[in-house]
Design brief:
alpha/beta; Rossmann fold; 3 domains; nine-stranded mixed β-sheet; six-stranded parallel β-sheet; 16 helices
Length: 426
C-alpha cells in the first residue's frame, strides 16, 4: 500500500482547515503532520485534531523554514498579502504547495514567486476550487466536446449578497486595499476570471479594460441619525438591513468564522459576550462609516486572440448571492446559474420550429456549501499532483493561474485610469 501524502498546515484558518480535514476521512491519502500559525489556540487545536507532536508546531513560516523539510507539502491558507512572503522560504526547501487564491497581490510578487517555482521545480497548485465543481465541469466538457463550436463570447456575473459584501468587503478583512493589499476584483472575483480563462484555454487574452466605483457603502450615504456601532449608539439597529444585530445575532451561524473569531477559544459564548464584542468589533460598525475603499461594482471587458470577447460584472449588495455564466459559440450556447444548479444548452437547429432546441443539463453531487462540491475534489487532485499521478482537467498549477491574475491586475489599472485599454503581455 502506498504511503499517504504528508502535509503541514500554514495559517490554520477556515479555508486551510477545509482542505486539511480531507485527511480525517481519507487517512490513506493525506496525513497532516504539522502546523504553523501565530495563534497558540489554533496551533493546539490543529495538533490535537490531527495527532502530531508538539515539536511540529511553529509560530510562522519563517520558524517552520528554519528546520529541515519533514513533509511532502504545505497547505498555505495565510492571508492574501503574505502568500508570497510565506511561500518563498518553504518552496526553497523543496516543499510542494497547495496555495490559496489569489496567489499574489501584484505583478512584482507574481514574478518573484514564479522565479522561485521555476528554479526549484516545485509542484504548486492554486485553490481555484470552482474548477472542481460539477457545475463548471459540465461547461468545460461541453466546450471540449465541440458542442458549442468556436466560442464567440463568454459572460460571467457575480452578484455578491448584501450580507456578504458588508461582512467581508466593508467591515471585514478585505475592505481596505491599503491594509489587505488586494482589490475587490482580486479578492472576490479571481475565481470568475480563472473560470473564464479556463473555458477559453488555450486561447489567451490580448487586452482588457474596466470601469467601477465605490458607490453605496460610504459616509455620505449614512442616515442622518445613524451611530458608529450598531449595538452601541445607533437608533436604527432594529430597522437597518445592514444592522450587525440582524445579520450576526438574529442569524447566529452567519459568517461565524469571521465575526466570532475572537471568541473561538471560549466554550459556548453567551449572547452578552457576543453583544459586547460587536460594540467594539469592526463587524459591529455602521457599514457607511468603515474604512473600506474597495469598489462595490465593477465591469471588465476582455478581448481574446481569436477575436472572442469576454465580460465580467461584479455587483455588490444584491439580495441573494448568484454566479451566472453564459458561453456563446457558433453552434449554440450554454447558460448557467451556479447557486440554483441550473444549466441550459441551446443548440442552433434550423430544422426545428423555433430554429433552435433547448436541453436542461442535470448536475449530480452538487453542494453549494462546499463550493459546488469542489473542495474535496480539489484536495484529491492535489494529492494526485504531488504523487506524480494523472490529474484531472480541472487541475490549476500555478502556471495555469497566471493569465487570470494578470487580467485582474490590468483591469484594476484600467479602472483607476477611467477605463483605458491595457495590452496583455505575450
Amino acid at each position: 500500500m502506498k504511503k499517504p501524502i504528508t502535509a503541514i498546515v500554514l495559517g490554520a484558518g477556515h479555508r486551510a482547515m477545509v482542505y486539511a480535514d480531507y485527511s480525517l476521512s481519507h487517512p490513506d491519502e493525506l496525513k497532516i503532520v504539522g502546523v504553523a500559525d501565530p495563534d497558540e489556540y489554533r496551533r493546539s487545536m490543529v495538533r490535537e485534531k490531527f495527532g502530531f507532536s508538539e515539536k511540529n508546531c511553529f509560530k510562522d513560516a519563517d520558524e517552520l523554514a528554519s528546520v529541515p523539510k519533514f513533509a511532502d507539502a504545505i497547505i498555505n491558507g495565510t492571508m492574501d498579502e503574505v502568500h508570497v512572503k510565506t511561500s518563498v522560504p518553504l518552496l526553497k526547501l523543496g516543499y510542494d504547495m497547495l496555495l490559496e487564491k489569489p496567489f499574489c497581490v501584484s505583478k512584482s510578487e507574481m514574478k518573484e514567486l514564479m522565479d522561485v517555482v521555476n528554479e526549484h521545480k516545485n509542484k504548486v497548485m492554486i485553490c481555484h476550487v470552482l474548477r472542481y465543481s460539477p457545475f463548471y465541469l459540465r461547461f468545460k466538457e461541453k466546450i471540449q466536446n465541440g458542442d458549442l463550436g468556436e466560442i464567440i463570447n463568454i459572460q460571467t456575473i457575480e452578484n455578491v449578497s448584501y450580507h456578504h459584501i458588508t461582512t467581508s468587503f466593508v467591515r471585514g478583512k478585505w475592505g481596505n486595499s491599503e491594509k489587505c493589499k488586494t482589490s475587490m476584483l482580486l479578492a472576490k472575483c479571481c475565481h470568475d476570471m480563472d473560470i473564464m480563462m479556463w473555458m477559453m484555454s488555450p486561447v489567451r487574452p490580448v487586452s482588457v479594460s474596466s470601469v467601477g466605483s465605490l458607490g453605496q457603502f460610504k459616509l455620505e450615504n449614512a442616515p442622518e441619525n445613524s451611530g458608529t456601532y450598531c449595538l452601541k449608539d445607533c437608533p436604527n439597529v432594529d430597522s437597518c438591513q445592514y444592522s450587525a444585530k440582524k445579520i450576526y445575532l438574529d442569524h447566529l451561524g452567519s459568517w461565524e468564522f469571521y465575526v466570532w473569531q475572537e471568541l473561538e477559544s471560549v466554550e459556548n459564548p453567551t449572547m452578552e459576550q457576543r453583544i459586547e464584542l460587536l460594540k467594539r468589533s469592526p463587524y459591529g460598525k455602521c457599514v457607511y462609516k468603515c474604512d473600506n475603499n474597495v469598489v462595490d461594482r465593477q465591469s471588465v471587458l476582455i478581448n481574446f486572440s481569436n477575436g472572442a470577447t469576454g465580460t465580467h460584472n461584479m455587483i455588490g449588495g444584491s439580495a441573494a448571492p448568484l454566479r451566472v455564466i453564459k458561453v456563446t459559440g457558433t453552434k449554440g450556447e450554454l447558460y448557467g446559474e451556479f447557486e440554483n444548479n441550473v444549466i441550459k444548452f441551446t443548440k442552433i437547429d434550423p430544422d426545428s420550429e423555433n430554429f433552435c432546441t433547448e436541453e436542461r443539463l442535470d448536475i449530480e453531487d452538487f453542494d453549494v456549501d462546499g463550493h459546488g462540491g469542489g473542495d474535496d475534489n480539489l484536495t484529491k487532485d492535489f494529492i494526485r499532483y504531488v504523487a506524480g499521478e494523472e490529474v484531472s482537467v480541472s487541475c490549476t498549477s500555478i502556471y495555469d493561474s497566471v493569465d487570470g491574475h494578470n487580467i485582474i491586475f490590468l483591469a484594476d489599472e484600467s479602472r483607476e485610469e477611467g477605463g483605458t485599454l491595457k495590452a496583455v503581455d505575450k
